[in-house]
């Protein structure tokens, strides 16, 4: 018996040791291979990027898409893989955006990054500071694999801007969304209201639409829980600014910021507006008929359309009501390629990126998800125009391109937005006054920005 | 059996212990040492793993951080809210289950289910129960004319909601331990007391409570330690946020947020060490009291 135990133990130990040893030697040989390849490349790098893919390359794309969004992405990826001889793209779902961000950071530390990933602009700033991302400019300009001037300019300008750091491209726009206003047609009609287009009209509509209906409490205006996280929208509409990217100065604690917070908070305190609260997202209460209007991401369209069909809610969407100015933030992520990849992998990733946002695919993607097409040609394409005619809500987002702006891209922007949102939440929950909230937000922001 | 240790027997013992030692070393001992070192990193380059400066700045920072003190306060409220009530309820249920009732096995299983179910699944159900407009709890309260309470979105109710969920979740484990303790009490005592004419309440007070004291003591230590470490329940119940306006932020959540969301590894590690010391002190106090009050 004793001997048997010893034998078993020895066997287990041996397996463990062998397994560990193997891994080491494998990764070491892989590294050597990579090194020798890199040497080869430098010698033949005479024209363009000079990389050729002549053997199978498999690359991983880390993303945070789920539901219909994920299905659409999988379809485009399958199409791409089918069109390629040597390149295979493997989609890896990393959960939510927060999870994705955490996993990328952990992978960066473990020197185990994927070849490409979705990333917000402020993440990329952080990656840039740590030299993790690939400069895509040589790929864009490459005579063989790149884009012509026209093709590059076909990318919607604001998205080109938001992906440029010091004149260089470090990512390409992928799933870009904007805020739109969903509304319940029947409720508006019954109240004899037009779709609100200004803050004043929005306030009036919210008041009128807050009502008792068939024993159900209806609140006029719905706001996402992230309203304080994306408060820049309201500040910009009030004519102000959230954060100056150039000077790194936080500007919420200004008359404009105060006006914006008073406007939003006033509606919530008066009970004519509410946040999604325990429902997570406003699409739930909206499709149950608990709110009449709601301001949310255009990427929420499929999440409204499906349940609305079941509950029989008659709905549509419109551009955001304007304050002093019309303003809407462009949210959503970009595709970025990491430095740690080999030249072949980078090229493969570039090929995939081009495919992902070509005219046909960006239009397909937009029609399935509510994100915006990122190319002018896609916006004008027959398929898209026809689709919009049949489904007008999908065309709302692009009507706001001129009013669009993007989030500040300073490093630590995420931490900053969270800290500010925490203080503004206290105001909306009635725990602090508008003045106290703005001051606390300023203090928290200065603390993070080191001002 | 009392052989003198020889070289062979020591080596043999070590070999037997090795698998456990390796696992404990890699997953327990190493992280404890590493996080202590990390709490001293004051200037740290995460990606290249270069520490430019060591010091106690992180500890100074957390002691001056109102967020940290708020988290500590919330955690202590949570511990005080959960542990005594949980022990009282589970003891009562355990005594009932120990009595001669029908379907004893079934009830024992039912009460144990929350303990083996994942926190996330439980939280999803409770989020529905707590829902302001459509929740079961507000529906019942409504029958008694109580107007709907915003359990999860009102900062004053967030902590009570969390406490209710946690008590419910912890019952099963405590009940099982109590049942084991109850079954260890010799029936003779009860019979003797009955002959002496002691009422059931007196029997409970003078036989069950003292003879169960070592079990109660064990449960209270385990519950307090676990309650100080509360995190999953917060994260799942409030959908990844520590309650409305951070009203249910606990120390472990503070550690999590600094580590994963803010990438402040030093601060997170320092907070983890402070938590460790707090739990350690509480356990020492309990052991001290236990020595004098617990009957074995």
Describe the structure.
The complex is a heterodimer of chains A (451) and B (296). Chain A has 451 residues and is an alpha/beta fold. Chain A has two domains: 146 residues, D-Maltodextrin-Binding Protein, domain 2 (3-Layer(aba) Sandwich), CATH 3.40.190.10; 196 residues, D-Maltodextrin-Binding Protein, domain 2 (3-Layer(aba) Sandwich), CATH 3.40.190. Chain A contains 19 helices and 15 strands. In chain A, strands 1, 2, 3, 6, 7, 8, 11, 12, 13, 14 and 15 form an eleven-stranded mixed beta sheet that branches. In chain A, strands 4-5 form a two-stranded antiparallel sheet. Chain B is mainly alpha-helical and 296 residues long. Chain B has two domains: 48 residues, no CATH class; 229 residues, MetI-like (MetI-like fold, Orthogonal Bundle). Helix content of chain B is 73%, strand content 3%. Chain B is built from 13 helices and two strands, in the order αββαααααααααααα. Chain B has a two-stranded antiparallel sheet. Chain B starts with 6 loop residues before the first helix and ends with a helix. At the A-B interface, helix 1, helix 3 and helix 18 of A face helix 1 of B.
Summarize the topology.
The complex is a heterodimer of chains A (451) and B (296).
Chain A: H1 2-44, E1 57-63, H2 67-83, E2 87-93, H3 97-109, E3 116-119, H4 121-129, H5 137-141, H6 149-153, H7 157-162, E4 164-165, E5 168-169, E6 172-184, H8 185-191, H9 199-209, E7 211-213, E8 216-223, H10 232-237, E9 243-244, E10 249-250, H11 255-269, E11 273-275, H12 283-288, E12 291-297, H13 301-311, E13 315-318, E14 328-337, H14 343-356, H15 359-369, H16 376-380, H17 382-390, E15 404-406, H18 413-428, H19 434-449
Parallel strand pairs in A: 1-2, 1-3, 8-11, 8-12, 14-15
Antiparallel strand pairs in A: 3-14, 4-5, 6-12, 6-13, 6-14, 7-8, 9-10
Chain B: H1 7-38, E1 41-45, E2 50-54, H2 57-64, H3 66-98, H4 104-116, H5 119-129, H6 136-143, H7 155-183, H8 187-195, H9 200-211, H10 213-228, H11 232-237, H12 251-261, H13 265-293
Antiparallel strand pairs in B: 1-2
Helix pairs in contact in B: 1-13, 2-13, 3-7, 3-10, 3-12, 4-7, 7-10, 10-13, 12-13
Family (chain A): Belongs to the bacterial solute-binding protein 1 family.
Biased composition (Basic and acidic residues) (chain A): 29-44
Region (Disordered) (chain A): 26-49
